[in-house]
Write a structure and sequence with these properties.
The structure holds two protein chains of two kinds.
Chain A (H helix, E strand, L loop, with lengths): L3 E2 L23 H6 L9 E2 L3 E7 L5 E7 L1 H5 L3 E5 L24 E2 L5 E7 L2 H9 L2 E6 L21 E9 L8 E9 L11 E6 L5 E5 L4 H12 L6 E5 L15 H11 L3 E4 L2 H7 L2 E2 L2 E9 L5 E13 L5 H10 L9 E10 L5 E2 L6 H19 L3 H8 L19 H9 L28 E14 L8 E11 L2 E8 L8 H13 L3 E4 L17 H24 L9 H5 L4 E8 L18 E14 L4 E12 L6 H20 L5 E2 L2 E2 L20 E4 L16 H18 L5 E2 L3 H5 L2
Helix pairs in contact in A: 4-5, 7-8, 8-9, 8-15, 11-12, 14-15
Chain B lengths: L2 E5 L2 E5 L8 H8 L18 E4 L2 E4 L12 E3 L12 H9 L8 H14 L5 H7 L11 H13 L1
Helix pairs in contact in B: 2-5
The chains are: A alpha+beta, B alpha+beta.
Bound molecules: FE2/S2 (inorganic) cluster (2 copies).
Keywords (chain B): 2Fe-2S, Iron, Iron-sulfur, Metal-binding, Oxidoreductase
GO molecular function (chain B): 2 iron, 2 sulfur cluster binding; metal ion binding; oxidoreductase activity
Protein name (chain B): Carbon-monoxide dehydrogenase small subunit
Chain lengths: 745, 153
């Protein structure tokens, strides 16, 4: 074994053909199927020791005292640290620096890190942790989001994190037909399979090298350096293999902890969470309570929408502010409505901290507004798709924020596509394994009813509200063994989505070369921005395209012609190297006006629609999703196979929220931190999917792309719940729908 | 405790193994074979699936000592040199690999299925893989991969 295994140690190369619009092999595919791709939890160093985290058992408590004496005495223990050992600022956070690296005086959620241990063996570290004596004075937890604003303040500024109002048109509008509803969305977990892990290696210059699974290397570095009290150039991050992310790696987990232990012990420190710790170790999707009122005329044309949306941010802010803004600005869905009154609030509580998860604020709102559209359709006696078509926004529509939708918004077409797909055969014609309850053999069709439901959703793509959202790419071209070979370097995190493949495709298309090596992603190059908001193909893709254009300009100057199609690049280059770095920024956005919510806050909108077909065993309350079809506009499919993979995977996460996934809390305590009790869809839960991909180019985006990753997660959930309602006639105002919601017991 | 085990055809020995250690820990941390994954370490996800005497098991549920004197085959032992096993090849081609953290376990489970059933039906594939969680793909392309591998074997 080599003395150190640190993620990608060499460049990734693979197929030598496949530009944009094709689906070449992933450059990391062979390593992954061979079990040789180094994920963060696979990192290894011959001198390494193991780090572990002692966490608070209480959702809210004062720390009276911490006694480390017994823990330090355990043979094999190298270090035991508390907040007193944090040399820099003991606070971090994406939007507000409100979260301690290690708790200081008070704990605000169950699972909050209190102390760290480094030891020779992970079990030694665990045993030592149990000998750290922490005396707590338990405090009353704040757990109800709707009353949290008036509860005892958990942070100096009070419990209201952000309020975003959106006001458009006549605030006193009335309508002939009115439907109201109160909806709830449970707390969903990203449940990425690769647990939080990393390896921190102390460096000779007094700094530290951190190999880690994350979504955003540069913002991690900034936060780590501040906590360590070091200049940023002393903290170097390299991306290791990432086992999925979905928003859950946008905040720090073990990054600062491993670095603190490494610097203290002078040894490389590996930290790996187990599944239970992972549930405590990252933020979740905000649970929400949503009150809606829709008014329409008798033809179904919406007159007004009013909404009050409460999002539970939990103990620390994370990205709650941006989630609130999304819920507010996208809160009425992809519909044209002249009169809008929306208020969204994000609040601190003593529940687990919530932040980014795929769909980011748009998921919660969509469950409510789509449920309302179905209610309204029923009230008017209209088909649910017909009602949506009568109100669907299109290119040229104006958002409730006043923003013009200035590229394709094929909401009606997406709905028609899923509506017109052939329906699956009736239940009973199917294998037992396709029945609700499956091989548990709970029914052979008795008590089983079928339902069909529809939904459509909207998502902002890229970062909004004036954020300087950019990415950096470096492309280098030289001749190796007589052939021109390109290298592409970015800090944009590959988390599974296939960015590495798309970067190769762009370089092949732009430079006409066959071989493209992807260099390890790290902080030796400029910021790549976050792998979130469905933005990497758009923004990092744009940066790679721009770097290629700069390389091509240099080649054109060398060749004395703009047209390189006839030029032999190997001959032209000889032993010269062309090396260019470029940044790409999408068009600027504006802040949201604080009182009216008006402003051109978003870069681009993405849309997807779903049709779900379900069978429900009404006696046991079991649901089998028989079929889930999706139509989505992606602007341009740079890699059609990866696009469909995103749509299928995103739809599966929406299915999970619809019928099974929830972190259940009571009094702020997590009751199900395991895959035994927090269920995610399996092969038996996911039905076959028909996917229609539209490619209506956005003229503002590189190659016309439109972000792909999030929209399918948004409409999947309400479509499935609509189908269960259609089957059962029940109101079902909360997700996930549990068997007892169906049986009423 | 000392554990002697044949892994991917090679005799391996580990000393000072603590009795609470799993076969998964032994493979990953002592024998330098991190291919089998650690997504839950509770027997719920299948990411750690390896063959133990030709039977697929969750390595996280097997004590390291139980593997003493036995044969283990991991995902690292499926390819022959540069030549991928047909199941591995199909996973890459079909787009069944995104983050890939589920992949080693799924590849072993699919390999075992195709050893037992040459041309499995869709319900048979779904049932055989139901113990292997994947969070990225929605499974559709994993099914495609198994069908493709079955056609080619
Ligand atoms: S790690 Fe063994 S089943 Fe999940
Ligand atoms: S590919 Fe990521 S968990 Fe399956």
């Amino acid at each position: 074994m080599s003395p150190i295994r640190t993620a990608l140690t060499s460049a990734l190369t693979s197929e030598v053909t496949g530009g944009i619009g094709t689906s070449p092999r992933r450059p990391d595919g062979n390593l992954k199927v061979r079990g040789e791709f180094a994920y963060a939890s696979d990192l290894w160093h011959e001198d390494m020791v193991w780090g572990a985290t002692l966490r608070s058992p209480h959702p809210h408590a004062r720390i009276v005292s911490v006694d480390l004496t017994e823990a330090i005495r355990v043979p094999g223990v190298r270090a035991v640290l508390t907040h007193e050992d944090v040399p820099g600022l003991n606070r971090y956070g994406l939007e507000r620096k409100d979260q301690p690296v290690l708790a200081e005086g008070v704990v605000r959620y169950q699972g909050e890190p209190v102390a760290l241990v480094a030891a020779d063996h992970p079990e030694t570290a665990r045993r030592a942790m149990r000998r750290v004596k922490v005396a707590y004075e338990v405090l009353e937890p704040v757990v109800d989001v709707e009353t949290a604003a008036g509860a005892a303040p958990l942070h100096p500024g009070g419990n209201l994190l952000r309020h975003v109002p959106v006001r458009r048109g006549d605030q006193a509008a009335t309508a002939a037909v009115v439907v109201t509803g109160r909806y709830e969305v449970g707390m969903q977990d990203q449940a990425f399979l690769g647990p939080e892990s990393g390896l921190a290696v102390p460096a000779e210059d007094g700094g530290v090298d951190l190999y880690v699974a994350t979504q955003w290397l540069h913002v991690d570095r900034e936060q780590v350096a501040r906590a360590l009290g070091m200049p940023e150039d002393k903290v170097r991050l390299t991306l290791s293999g990432v086992g999925g992310a979905f928003g859950g790696r946008e905040d720090l987990s073990m990054q600062v902890h491993a670095c603190l232990l490494a610097l203290r012990t002078g040894r490389p420190v590996k930290m790996v969470y187990n599944r239970e710790e992972s549930f405590y170790g990252h933020v979740h999707r905000h649970p929400a309570v949503l009150h809606y009122e829709h008014g329409a005329d008798r033809t179904g044309k919406l007159s007004y929408v009013k909404a009050k949306i409460y999002l539970d941010g939990g103990a620390y802010a994370s990205s709650t502010g941006a989630v609130v803004a999304n819920a507010a600005t996208l809160g009425i869905g992809p519909y044209e409505v002249d009169n809008v009154t929306v208020d969204a609030w994000g609040l601190y509580t003593n529940n687990p901290p919530c932040g980014a998860m795929r769909g980011f604020g748009a998921v919660q709102a969509a469950f409510a507004y789509e449920s309302q559209m179905d209610r309204l359709a029923a009230e008017l006696g209209l088909h649910p798709v017909e009602l949506r078509l009568r109100n669907a926004m299109a290119e040229g529509s104006v958002m409730p924020t006043g923003q013009l939708v200035d590229s394709a918004a094929p909401v009606a077409r997406l709905l028609e596509l899923v509506r017109d797909k052939p329906l699956p055969p009736p239940s009973g014609a199917l294998d037992l394994r396709d029945m609700p309850g499956g091989v548990a053999n709970t029914t052979h069709g008795e008590g089983v009813v079928r339902g069909v439901g529809y939904a459509v959703g909207i998502k902002n793509i890229c970062f909004s509200e004036g954020y300087d959202d950019y990415s950096t790419a470096r492309v280098r071209l030289q001749v190796v063994n007589g052939e021109p070979v390109a290298q592409a370097h970015t800090a944009a995190c590959e988390v599974g989505q296939g960015l590495v493949t798309v970067v190769q495709q762009i370089v092949r298309t732009e430079l006409g070369v066959r071989r493209v090596a992807i260099l390890p992603m790290d902080t030796t190059i400029g910021d790549g921005g976050s792998t979130s908001a469905s933005r990497q193909t758009y923004v990092t893709g744009g940066a790679v395209k721009a770097a290629c254009a700069a390389v091509r300009a240099e080649l054109a100057a060398m060749a004395g012609t703009e047209d390189l199609s006839e030029v032999d690049l190997a001959e032209l280059l000889g032993d010269r190297v062309v090396d260019r770095t470029a940044e790409y920024r999408h068009r600027r956005t504006e802040p949201i006006a604080p009182v009216t919510g008006q402003g051109n806050a978003h870069v681009q909108y993405g849309f997807a629609a779903h049709r779900a077909v379900v069978d429900v065993d009404t006696e046991l309350g079991l649901v089998k999703v028989v079929r889930l079809d999706c139509a989505q506009d992606v602007g341009r499919a740079l890699n059609p196979q990866a696009v469909v993979g995103q749509i299928q995977g995103g739809s599966a996460q929406g299915l999970g929220l619809a019928v099974m996934e929830e972190i259940r809390t009571s009094g702020g305590r997590v009751r199900n931190p395991s895959f035994t009790d927090y269920l995610i869809p399996t092969t038996l839960d996911m039905p076959p999917m028909g996917v229609d991909v539209l490619e209506l180019a956005d003229p503002n985006a590189p190659y016309g792309v439109r972000g792909v990753g999030e929209p399918p997660t948004i409409s999947s959930t309400p479509a499935i719940v609509a189908a269960i309602r259609a089957a059962t006639g029940l109101a079902l105002t909360r997700v996930p729908v549990r068997p007892e919601h169906i049986t009423g017991t | 405790m000392r554990v002697d085990v044949t892994v991917n055809g090679e005799a391996r020995r580990a000393d000072d193994v603590w009795e609470g250690e799993s076969l998964l820990f032994l493979l990953r941390e002592r024998l330098g074979l991190p291919g089998a994954k650690n997504a839950c370490e509770q027997g719920e996800c299948g990411s750690c699936t390896v063959y133990l005497d030709d039977v697929p098991v969750c390595a996280c549920l097997v004590a390291a000592g139980q593997a003493h004197g036995r044969e283990v085959r991991t995902v690292e032992g499926l390819a022959v040199g540069d030549e991928l096993d047909p199941v591995q090849e199909a996973f890459v081609e079909a787009g069944a690999v995104q983050c890939g953290f589920c992949t080693p376990g799924l590849v072993v489970a699919a390999h075992d299925l195709l050893n037992r059933v040459a041309a499995p039906s869709d319900p048979e594939i779904r049932e055989a893989l139901a113990g292997n969680l994947c969070r990225c793909t929605g499974y559709e392309k994993i099914l495609d991969a198994v069908r493709l591998a079955a056609r080619r074997r």
